[in-house]
Write a structure and sequence with these properties.
2 domains; 365 residues; elongated; alpha+beta; 7-stranded antiparallel beta sheet; single chain
Length: 365
């Protein structure tokens, strides 16, 4: 299949779009870093952070975060800015008057939007999780004090099909679970139950050490009991399962790890699974915001209106902020159980897709 040749106007629009986007994102990142530095400079000096650590472990890993955070808004501003200038220089009128259809005029915009969407999806799904891991570790050493808290009690969890654990409480600082038990089922029948005083993670052996235990094994009507003082065992759980910051743990997961973690949460029957499902569908839906905001920007700014470029930017910013706000708003509905995660993530795209249809009908043809 032969790819269509890019005309001079195609290359002009694509270069203007990507160039303006890149320039604006660099400016925004620089300003954001300056404000962040002014807020945290005392923490850097207090914890004797070196210049190398601050740059390499903190701000360098902040760049992917800022790119994802600001890209929808920057996409829109970029499109509005240079398309409005084309409209007020009568370039768009000249193109349409010479036989170019509005759909053909949109093609270079969509090609540039595809490049940005592909880059943001790659960053969001694969690069940002690693950057967030390094940045969070630096923040834990510099800004946050004390270990991560885990305040749940009477912890019930399925760690494997037919294998359930219970702990009365868990200490993150010492990696100890108190009043530990594990039950194993086969086709709905209890076949084994272990009860112990506590369980501790052995970081050298990468295993759990169970203290003061006894095991009941069931074989039909026959029961055998085994007791002991120390038992090293490998379980499908790690201390990190109880030491994560639930508000940001998904930020450190690649797409593959996020999918695997959702599978584990389903198996465990965890109530927090919705947060991770919402994050997964948001990562899939997020790249489409580039196309949506690009189309809104082009259809709004491709005709002259009273008020000039400022009027275009004002109207467009209202729509783009509404889109971003609505995406966050619908996510909270999903987390609170009112909406399915997939519907919550894609609803903003569907609603603003209808807005695009209206704006497209009003665009100059």
């Amino acid at each position: 299949m032969k790819l269509p040749q890019l005309s001079i106007i195609d290359r002009y629009i694509i270069s203007k779009f990507l160039g303006t986007f890149l320039y604006a994102i660099i400016i925004i990142i620089a300003i954001s870093c300056i404000f962040d530095l002014s807020e945290h400079i005392d923490d850097f000096f207090e914890h004797k952070s070196t210049f190398k650590d601050v740059i390499l472990h903190y701000y360098l890993n902040f760049i992917p975060y800022f790119v994802i955070l600001f890209s929808p808004l920057i996409v829109f501003i970029s499109v509005i800015y240079f398309t409005s200038r084309m409209a007020y220089n009568t370039e768009i009128i000249a193109l349409l008057s010479n036989g170019m259809s509005f759909n053909r005029f949109l093609r270079p915009y969509m090609l540039a939007a595809f490049v940005i969407a592909l880059v943001t999806f790659t960053i969001n799904s694969f690069i940002l999780p690693y950057a967030n891991t390094i940045r969070n570790e630096f923040m834990d050493r510099t800004f946050r004090t004390g270990p991560t808290n885990f305040n749940e009690r009477n912890i019930h969890k399925q760690i494997m099909p037919g294998e359930y654990i219970y702990m009365e409480s868990y200490s993150v600082a010492s990696s100890i679970g108190y009043k530990f038990s594990i039950e194993k089922f086969n086709e709905g029948q209890l076949v084994s139950k272990l009860i112990s005083d506590f369980i501790r993670w052995d970081s050298i052996k990468s295993k759990w050490t169970i203290r003061n235990y006894y095991i009941r094994n069931y074989d039909g009507m026959k029961e055998t009991i085994k007791e002991g003082t120390v038992l090293d065992t490998a379980l499908n759980m790690r201390p990190g399962d109880f030491a994560v910051r639930e508000d940001s743990y998904f930020e450190t997961m690649t797409m593959k790890k996020l999918n695997n973690y959702i599978v584990d949460l389903k198996m465990q029957g965890s109530e927090s699974i919705t947060v991770y499902q919402v994050e997964k569908h948001k990562r899939l839906a997020f790249p489409f915001s580039t196309f949506i905001l690009t189309l809104i920007g082009v259809t709004l700014s491709s005709r002259k209106v009273k008020g000039g470029i400022g009027m275009h930017i004002g109207a467009g910013l209202g729509l783009s902020f509404s889109y971003i706000f609505f995406m966050q708003f619908s996510s909270q509905f999903a987390i609170n159980g009112s909406l399915p995660p997939m519907l919550a993530a894609w609803t903003p795209n569907l609603i603003f897709g209808l807005i695009i249809v209206v704006l497209y009908r009003l665009a100059p043809k």
